[in-house]
User: What shape does this take?
Amino acid sequence: MLTCEVSLFPLETMASDQIVNEAIQALKETGVKHETGNLSTYLYSDSPEQIWNGLKAIYKEAEKA
Assistant: This one.
């Protein structure tokens, strides 16, 4: 089992909560097992590709803001 910890800190915006929530929703849509904490999110998978897909989903969604 692989584990990845990721944090997203949107800068220069007043909508950081919204951006983070939308990024977490994008992660949920990938089906990657995850656990969200106060400052970071843990991704779990046996597949490195799934972890990368989850990370890409998070950051692609954040880039839209």
In short: The chain has a mean pLDDT of 97.
